[in-house]
What does this fold into?
Amino acid sequence: MRIDIWSDVVCPWCYIGKRRLEEALAASGEQAEIVWHSFQLDPSASNDDDRDLATRLGEKFGRDRAFGLQANEHVSTIATEVGLDFHLEDAKAANTVDAHRLLHLARELGQSGEVPADTQGRLKERLLKAYFTEGLPVGDHATLTRLAVETGLPADRVGAVLAGTTYTAQVETDQAQALAYGANGVPFFVIDEK
It folds into this structure.
């Protein structure tokens, strides 16, 4: 079975959905090849936005910071049900295009055998934990480099990707494919092309 998943590394429902999928696979005994695809919730997001997440959420939905705080509390409670410990008060604003580009690198190197095949999944997990639990800036190149190297990607390849535009087209193609499937939110799962 192959499961293609469109998600963003700053989407709380994507992290919760990842855990729920892992639990379902473990309970069923099924084996699956999981392929992570890019979906940016906010392609215009800035890495330099110093507003806290509650304020950003409130403004995004035309509401106030109290709305954002309530939303964060709600999703954090649900996260605990699947063993996740969110610290959304520490979440840093991030444009996630570079994180997605590194996930494409991890997939390519895993397919070629240059790194273990599960490197893309391990990098996805590391990026989610960095954002939701550790409050790390997942749009920052130094942070991305450290996290990618921690998961086994070669530092020189990571540096080359971050210094240029490699995999930008793949990120855009993923986003377009999700929209073609009718996805208007994430996580979005396609199982064996259905």
About this structure: The longest strand covers residues 2-7. DSSP finds eight helices and three strands in the chain. The two ends are 11 Å apart (CA to CA). Residues 2-191 form a domain with the Glutaredoxin fold (CATH 3.40.30.10).
